[in-house]
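Example complex used in Figure S2.
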Amino acid sequence: DVQLVESGGGLVQPGGSRKLSCAASGFTFSSFGMHWVRQAPEKGLEWVAYISSGSSTIYYADTVKGRFTISRDNPKNTLFLQMTSLRSEDTAMYYCARAGTYFDVWGAGTTVTVSS
Amino acid sequence: DIQMTQSPASLSASVGETVTITCRASENIYSYLAWYQQKQGKSPQLLVYNAKTLAEGVPSRFSGSGSGTQFSLKINSLQPEDFGSYYCQHHYGTLYTFGGGTKLEIK
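Predicted assembly (223 residues):
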């Protein structure tokens, strides 16, 4: 089965850092671009970042540009999101999603809470 | 940046009814629009892409239409499993903006 499994979430202090991972299985990871999308509690979806299959193209939402870094390890079928200078407004469920036909496969998400 | 405006923000309907959700783009996005369904506590699922193409496994009671700046998602004969939240999303350029969402509740 095609599957994405996020990990790395947790409680982080304001100004701190956290690295999220997304393990892919059931498809040729190196052939697909990947996204991170987040959802604050009781709020809508917010696209965060995109990385192409070979990492040559990367885009960020303005709200995270300069603070978050998306990367991937194709031999290990893993996507990453390095988050720094975290703020309370970064508190959210973070999903990874495959860039197939739009966002065609989603993980279950990992929760990041930024609080002192 | 392109803004996506969904309406209504919430909607109450009964099983068997037909509902329509609309999405307006702040500029022309041609047909680069998708719709997602999200049930409570679950991750979103792709319903429609390229404005009107149903994703694999999506029931035919769902239909998408529109192009340019005006789009809609229609659900015929609502089923209990259709209740949840719906989001439109554009992919035009280098950003992937979601609409604010529509919460569809049981009347």
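The CA atoms of residues 16 and 86 of chain A lie 5 Å apart. Chain A touches chain B through 19 residues (CB under 8 Å).
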